[in-house]
Specification:
The structure holds two protein chains of two kinds. By secondary structure, chain A is mainly alpha-helical. Chain A has 20 helices and two strands. Chain A has a two-stranded antiparallel ribbon with strand order 1-2. Chain B has a two-stranded antiparallel sheet with strand order 1-2. In chain B, helix 2 packs parallel to helix 4, helix 4 packs antiparallel against helix 5 and helix 6 runs antiparallel to helix 8. The two termini of chain B are about 15 Å apart. Classes of the chains: A mainly alpha, B mainly alpha.
Chain lengths: ~500, ~475
């Protein structure tokens, strides 16, 4: 069932590629239908999952000679991310109902990307994980190069080279783990059970360094974030949404899933480094976002900021001397909730910024003004997303950040206090952005559009794409138990594994 | 001495096939020359079948220990004819109706035979003979097109080949003098007490010829010129098939050397690092896809040499053989795309290929990303196993160098992929021109094969041998 869920979008993508005569409308609705079916499948998997171990498991030999198997399964860490993936891809499918150039290939590419994302979050084998990790880069390269604007070829190349460098570092780390394990294996469950390099010596440090660089580039954290703003700015809206909501999570998920449990000794020893990088990313991302004039670049930099919080929490979970297991487990739970929350909210923000580009042809905030009048729904949605993103209580971001800070404060008080300043800066920059876009006298770069009443505001397809994302962020913010019941046990397990 | 003619059926198929193709090609009228090509293809298929049947037999040496029948030879007997078949398929459009149509098939068969013999040779003299057989047919193949570039390339390959061939014979003489024998099994004992300096001189000179065949640093100068000067089908062949024999031969001959007297592992590791680095750096600036692929094959040999550098470690041979198969099919796929669109001589002219030839573009993307080593293609598994073996062989630095090189290589492969997938020119000489169906079909088949081989690696890898007989 899990395999079917993972590979159904790919099968649909192949059909779309091969069946060239399919009319565009049919393509759009096929895409929506498959994405909806995926969401239903993931919900089914979640409902039937019985924790706390790996559920819906499939383990078949794949490359026995190289110690790698087709091993997939889900647990409390991966289920929320699988669900997030299904939701965001469905939102992108709905969003693209309004029209998209060369929709057949676009849809096929997104469906293939959905398979790589689902596969990565379900992978329980390092090579399988790496396979999906790398294919997601290839897919996103084509999305940016083929459907981007501005300087798409350049941004796509930069994105590809950077993240591919990361993936190679990751592969080196995986090979290091493989070489150190005995018997040689790439199986994550096996490696978690009997971690090689447990003493945290120099070999463990090097392997952790390789894996951490690989994941940090994908996440991205300071100083590996430079590929992110151009990639985001020049990608199509749906591409940015998937990139920010799903692909960035591959990095943070890798930290929780691989780096922490497989290299517990090294993680504990170098936890402080991750805390420091997390804090720098959080503050640096927020401050640079504050300086942006482009709405989309600003959101891109707030992603660096939010990913910084996650790394802070995961680093703090490694400082076992300074805090109790309860606090560390809260921090890890917060990190996982932050992944989901950031995916929902930033996905929505990027789709909204795509609407801005669609109507005005620019992301420069100074070109706009007073949009709240002609586009009330757009203004309302953007305001909700912005408030959710800055961590207002009642939204998922608050739950996540509250847990992260509460869990990290005991073990890393100074770092947490510094990171808290990031919230202040984000609040300021979002309010300022709302102010510039929506308040004051009405201004719009395209006078012709402004003259037609209602044309600026959201169309039904756009509303249907964005509203569920924000509704889910609100639902998690109001009833966090739905999510926490699944995440908590897995986070506790992760903390226990690190403390070994 | 054990006479076992049946043991050599795959090789005999290639030899007889060459003779029959040559004779039939001489008698058939020009418009029926395709029959000769068909005969050549059947000979390759027969050789492949015979190899598959014989692979079940026990590992042994035949003819007084001069020829080894083991997993490595079995692999070469399968990979070489399969690659040659792909070359014949992609060449069908180009050679059809040419005055020398059947000669092309004959040369392919003879060069394939030479490559298989190189892989199986377990005696320095057989190695030398196989080298000559493989090289001489290659010189002719490079000049097959009989145009100015081809002649220049052929001359260059010939001069370098003769030079390195003589150097190799010198090495054979050296090692014979030191070890008192030419058969590997006897040499392994005979060389045990040899003086280090003389042994090093003999080894290095012997390596020269094999590095020439493999197209590795420092004997790589001919590769880009030949790849750009020869006809595309010939270029596809000579950047692929000789390497298969040469690398297995390298593996075989190096494992007989006493490790104590000479640190040949470090030498090979250095050659591997140099080969991949220089090949990649030189490929950056190329604008001709053929030269780019030529340099890319030099860098690929670097990765392959990593497995040789850790020879005799468990899994080193297995990873080498798998990587060879993966490399052969992927590289031929990339060349098949070039062969399908012979008018496109610059990377820029590929712009807009995606909208005119979606299948061909797909094959190109799969094969080039395959050469990078992106999963799930076969080369990824090849790289993975080679990297793992090298890491276990206490050479993590070489793995790091290889990973950095993989990243660097991505850059120039993307320089080719990027125009192909973005919209562009529509001129008749541009990407909109009609494609050669044979080569196009081969490209798609090779791209599919590289994916299948990658996904089916679990079935292929365990069937490969990890020990050599000598």
């Amino acid at each position: 069932m899990l395999s079917l869920t993972v590979f159904l979008p790919l099968a649909a993508a192949v059909v779309l590629i091969v069946w060239r005569g399919l009319p565009d409308t049919a393509v759009r609705w096929t895409w929506v239908a498959v994405s909806a079916a995926e969401l239903a499948a993931v919900v089914y998997l979640w409902v039937t999952y019985q924790g706390p171990d790996l559920g819906h498991e499939t383990n078949r030999p794949w490359i026995p000679g190289a110690g790698s198997g087709y091993h997939i399964g889900v647990d409390g860490l991966s289920l929320p991310l699988l669900a997030l993936t299904a939701v965001v891809f469905l939102a992108c499918a709905l969003y693209s109902l309004r029209g998209q150039r060369d929709i057949r290939r676009f849809a096929a590419l997104f469906l293939a990307l959905e398979t790589t994302s689902l596969g990565l979050f379900a992978a329980a084998d390092l090579i399988l994980f790496f396979l999906f990790f790398d294919l997601s880069i290839v897919g996103m390269y084509f999305v940016i190069a083929g459907w981007g604007h501005g300087e798409p070829a350049r941004s796509a190349l930069k994105f590809f080279l950077y993240t591919f460098l990361g993936s190679l570092a990751l592969l080196l780390g995986f090979i290091g783990l493989y070489a150190a394990s005995s018997p040689h294996t790439f199986d994550m469950a096996e490696l978690t059970r009997r971690p090689p390099l447990e003493d945290g010596g120099p070999a463990g440090a090097l392997v952790l360094l390789a894996i951490a660089i690989g994941l940090a580039v994908k996440t991205p954290t300071f100083p590996f974030h430079t590929w992110l703003p151009p990639a985001h700015t020049d990608a199509p809206a749906a591409g940015s949404a998937v990139l920010a909501a799903i692909l960035l999570k591959m990095g943070t998920y890798g930290f929780v899933r691989i780096a922490m449990p497989v290299l517990p000794g090294s993680w504990r020893r170098y936890a402080l480094a991750f805390v420091v990088i997390g804090v720098i990313s959080a503050l640096y991302g927020a401050l640079v976002a504050l300086a942006q004039t482009s709405f989309k670049r600003m959101i891109a930099y707030t992603s660096v900021n939010h990913m910084g919080y996650i790394l802070l929490a995961l680093g703090a979970a490694g400082l076992i001397a300074q805090s109790d297991a309860q606090a560390r487990s809260v921090a890890v739970t917060g990190a996982v909730v932050q992944m989901v929350s950031h995916g929902l909210i930033t996905g929505a923000l990027f789709l909204l910024s795509g609407i801005l580009w669609d109507r005005g042809g620019t992301y420069e905030m100074d070109s706009y003004g007073g949009l709240a009048g002609p586009a009330p729904r757009f203004a309302a949605f953007t305001a909700i997303a912005a408030f959710a993103s800055l961590g207002l209580p009642g939204f998922s971001g608050f739950i996540a950040e509250f847990q992260i800070f509460a869990g990290s404060l005991g073990s890393a008080p100074v770092a947490t206090a510094l990171a808290l300043l990031g919230i202040l800066v984000t609040a300021g920059l979002f309010l300022w952005a709302l102010h510039r876009l929506f308040l004051g006298p009405a201004r719009h770069p395209r006078a012709a559009v402004r003259a037609v009443p209602g044309v600026l505001d959201l169309r039904p397809a756009e509303t249907w794409a964005v509203a569920p994302l924000l509704a889910l962020a609100l639902a998690i913010g109001v009833f966090p138990r739905l999510l926490l019941d699944t995440v908590d046990p897995a986070a506790r397990t992760a903390v226990e594994l690190v403390a070994r | 001495m054990r006479m076992d003619p049946l043991a050599l059926v795959p090789e005999l198929c290639l030899l007889l096939g060459a003779v029959v193709t040559l004779l039939s090609g001489s008698w058939l009228p020009r418009h029926r020359q395709w029959i000769a090509g068909l005969l050549a293809g059947s000979a390759l298929a027969a050789s492949l079948t015979a190899a598959a049947v014989l692979a079940a037999g026990p590992d042994r040496t035949v003819y007084a220990g001069t020829y080894a029948l083991d997993g490595a030879t079995d692999a070469a007997r399968v990979i070489v004819p399969a690659a040659a078949l792909l070359v014949l398929a992609l060449s069908a459009g180009r050679v059809r109706g040419d005055r020398r149509e059947s000669e092309f098939s004959v040369l392919v068969l003879l060069a394939s035979l030479g490559s298989v013999l190189l892989a199986g040779a377990s005696d320095l003299l057989v190695l030398a003979v196989a080298y000559l057989l493989a090289s001489i047919s290659l010189y002719a193949l490079v000049g097959w097109g009989r145009d100015q570039n081809g002649a220049e390339a052929a001359l260059k390959v010939y001069l370098l080949g003769a030079l390195f061939g003589i150097t190799m014979l010198l090495g054979v003489a050296f090692l014979y003098g030191l070890g008192g024998a030419t058969a590997y099994a006897a040499l392994a004992d005979g060389l045990a007490g040899a003086p280090a300096g003389a042994l090093a001189a003999g080894t290095v000179t012997l390596l020269a010829g094999l590095l020439f065949k493999a197209g590795a640093i420092p004997a790589h100068f001919w590769v880009p010129d030949a790849a750009a000067g020869a006809t595309v089908p010939a270029a596809a062949f000579l950047t692929t098939v000789p390497k298969i024999g040469a690398l297995i031969a390298l593996y075989r001959v190096l494992t007989i050397l006493p490790g104590a007297a000479l640190d040949w592992r470090l030498l090979v590791a250095a050659l591997a690092a140099a080969s991949m680095t220089l090949g990649n750096l030189a490929a950056f600036a190329q604008t001709d896809p053929r030269r780019l692929l030529g340099y890319s094959t030099i860098s690929q040999v670097g990765y392959l040499l990593m497995a040789v550098a850790v020879a005799a470690r468990p899994d080193a041979l297995r990873s080498l053989l798998f990587y060879l198969a993966a490399y052969a099919v992927t590289n031929l796929g990339a060349f098949a795309v070039v062969a399908a669109l012979p008018a496109l001589r610059t990377l820029r002219s590929y712009s807009g290929l995606g909208s005119h030839h979606p299948w061909l573009t797909g094959a190109l993307v799969v094969c080039l990303l395959g050469l990078v080593g992106t999963p799930p293609t076969a080369v990824f598994i090849g790289k993975l196993t080679v990297f793992s073996a090298t890491w276990s062989g206490a050479m993590p630095w070489l793995v790091a160098v290889a990973a950095l090189n993989t990243l660097a290589s991505l850059f120039y492969y993307l320089r080719w992929i990027a125009p192909a997938v973005t919209p562009g020119s529509h001129g008749p000489a541009g990407a909109g021109a009609a494609a050669d169906h044979w080569a196009g079909g081969t490209a798609v088949a090779a791209a599919a094969a590289t994916l299948v081989l990658g996904a089916g690696a679990g079935l292929v890898l365990p069937s490969l041998s990890d020990v050599l007989t000598r």
